[in-house]
Amino acid sequence: MTFSSLSRRALFRGLVAAVLAFPFASLAAETTVKLRLMETTDIHVHVMNYDYYRDQADHSFGLSKTASLIKIARGEVANSLLIDNGDLIQGNPMGDYIAREKGLKDGDIHPVYKAMNLLGYDVGNIGNHEFNYGLEFLATALKGAKFPYVNANVMSADGQKNMYTPYLILERKLKDEAGKEHPIKIGVIGFVPPQIMAWDRRHLEGKVTAKDIVETAKRFVPEMKSKGADLLIAVPHSGLGPVETAGSDENATWLLSKVPGVDAILFGHAHLLFPSEVYKSVPGIDVAKGTVNGVAAVMPGFWGNHLGLIDLTLAVDDAGKWKVTDRQSSLRAVFRMQDRQRVPAVDNDPAVVAAVKDDHDGTLGFIRKPVGKIAARLHSYFALVQDDPSIQIVTDAQKWYVENLLKATEYRKLPVLSAGAPFKAGGRSGPEFYTDIPAGPLAVKNVADLYLYPNTVQVVRVTGAQVKEWLEMSAGIFNQIDPNSAAEQALINQAFPSYNYDVIDGVTYKIDVTRPRRYDNDGKLVASDSHRIIDLAYQGRLIDPEMVFAVATNNYRASGGGKFPALDGKNVIVESPEENRTVIIEYLFDKGSIDPSADNNWSFAKPSKPVTVLFESSPAAEALLASAKGMTKLGPDANGFMRYALKLE
Ligand code: MN
Ligand code: MG
User: Does the pTM exceed 0.85?
Assistant: First the structure.
């Protein structure tokens, strides 16, 4: 081993013993150079700090804000590189506005690039959502970037040729602390989850193929080294993932860190933060340094809410040979916490705001304008007491999307059911907290009213018996009703959140509220001999407990949210990257006009004798009583709700 290949620290450790044996001159042969890597990821067209679903500004995200962090971080150092990891051109109404309304002709610049071209990006990587509008749209968009793009694992249909530049060897000059410049070759390679072939099958099938991330890295990293890459940066649009491969891993960053030659990883896709304490028990991870198996790594959240930094300390010897001697990853947020509230940490970059002003204004017009039509009034006033149109439109859209998605998989033969819950159904959020959209034109911003959360679609594989238990858990929202009592009986258990009242469409059933609930609010079996769900049927026949179904739901429920029986994340068969509300918008665009009327697939079972129960809803629901069966108005309560009576008979 020569002196020049040792780290500076090692040299000084050996100095006491070696000082007489070696002339000091040889120590000066190595120079320290610092390099800061900056990463943005999963911007999803959030150029502006604007929530287009709520139609209001939001200071917790936006590239307009990250841009300010980028300028500060760049100004602190002599050498830096700025890289975007992808999921850039799709994911909010501005993306839909460009793709569906304004259009993107050859020569047009996508607003994301109007902004990014001002910020001095060095390289971009292609994320899975880049394929959502098809290969041609992507190609047109990419032409607007004033910086190069990489992707190494999307291949031609025959799997032989790379569709994009797999990697770049950037030739840069880095300044040392004395201001002297040192030439360096920086290799940058990009990856996307091979799952794009399922997620965007209709755009990609027969046109491209996608290869395993780690296998692709093993092929290209040695090639990059042989072409002289002094430093090698991997940019996987992929989360941390497992420590053991299952093959074609969607999240492959941990595995990628084991590929010899990789010096730094700028990752993403999972919309999470790294480094973070959350990972401290994962093998090979140093959360203080921000390393994965000793390799510097960072993942800066989503929508531009954080800037990711890796500060590398490099040593270069007289022969121009480089090595990484130290590394530190960190995150900077666009907001900071003050009294448990998010307050802005930086202002918008005025140049970014000005660059996308026309597109932002166009998007505002787009979200406020009808994109489809609904044939019936869409409200959630009776969502807890009868089958409801505000849930029906969600379950219909999910079913439409998932049936198409499963066609590309081994699950294509499974019958698809679809689960949805009322997110806006009064309760603790108050008497204003309902959905009510008149029949007629529906605008994009109304979709936020239908689907409040940025959940993503997931599909679980369950048996008929498990479908029943799922509904039994839901039915815990009802208090037990005594048909022989003349006292006032409230139907709804207020401690049970309405977002856990899943209706499952695709089956029919009745709920017998005169029996004890089978599960408590925490999913604990509390009455093992009680069954509230009766006459559960599929296609008109009592359900076969052994029959297997695919149920469309969301990531929250599928991963155990609400502690439903048999839903613990283990039976998830599809994790779509698509938000449920995006699926609803797609459904609207596809159908143009939809009839969201509830199909009345569930109802209350007839009690042993007629009984009247009470429930609360908005005073505005009074006008709808004429069309609701067995309901009458009682009078206002103290909290602004109206009390209604429902006769079960
Ligand atoms: Mn993403
Ligand atoms: Mg229904």
Answer: no
CA of 603 to the centre of ligand 2 (A): 10
Residue 413 and residue 270 share a domain:
no
Rounded to the nearest whole angstrom, what is the distance from the C-alpha of residue 613 to the centroid of ligand 2? 22
Listed residues: CB within 5 A of ion ligand 1: 42, 87
Judged by phi (left if over 0) then psi (alpha if -120 to 50, else beta), residue 359 lies in: alpha
Measured from the alpha carbon of residue 300, the closest ligand is 1
Instruction: Compute CA distances 72 → 75, 94, 119, 296, 344, whole Å.
Output: 5, 27, 12, 22, 15
Indicate which ligand has the atom closest to the C-alpha of 45: 1
Q: What is the CATH number of the domain that holds 198?
A: 3.60.21.10
Torsion over CA: 247, 248, 253, 257 (sign): positive
For residue 129, how far is its CA from the centre of ligand 1 (angstroms)? 7
Q: Which ligand is nearest to the CA of 302?
A: 1
The predicted structure's pLDDT at residue 27:
52
The pLDDT score that the predictor gives to residue 446 is 87
Per-residue pLDDT at 215 exceeds 50: yes
End-to-end CA distance of the chain: 89
296 in any annotated domain: yes
Q: Are residues 342 and 482 in the same domain?
A: no
- Kindly tell me if the per-residue pLDDT of 329 is higher than 80: yes
d(Cα 367, Cα 353) in Å, to the nearest integer?
19
Does residue 202 share a domain with residue 269?
yes
Ranges 12-26, 359-373, 467-481: which has the least confidence: 12-26
- Give the relative orientation of helices 389-406 and 580-591 as an angle to the nearest 10 degrees: 90
423 Rama sector, left if φ>0, alpha if ψ -120 to 50, beta otherwise:
alpha
Identify whether 111 is preceded by a cis peptide bond (ω within 30 of 0). no
The domain total for the chain is 2
Establish if 405 belongs to a structural domain. Answer: yes
- Helical residues (DSSP H) of 536-595, grouped into ranges: 555-558, 580-591
Which ligand is located closest to the Cα atom of residue 420? Answer: 2
Host domain of residue 484 = 369-648
Whether 231 and 172 share a structural domain: yes
**Residue at which a domain ends, from 339, 359, 379:** 359
Q: What's the 474 CA to ligand 2 centre distance in angstroms?
A: 14
The alpha carbon of 421 and the centre of ligand 2 are apart by a number of angstroms equal to 11
Q: d(Cα 142, Cα 309) in Å, to the nearest integer?
A: 25
Q: Is 82 exposed, middle or buried (0-12, 13-18, 19+ CB in 10 A)?
A: buried
Judged by phi (left if over 0) then psi (alpha if -120 to 50, else beta), residue 396 lies in: alpha
Q: 497 C-alpha vs ligand 1 centroid, how far in Å?
A: 29
- DSSP string covering 449-480: HH--S--EEEEEEEEHHHHHHHHHHHGGGBPP
Nearest ligand to the CA of 88 is 1
Domain closes at, from 338, 359, 380: 359
CA of 495 to the centre of ligand 1 (A): 34
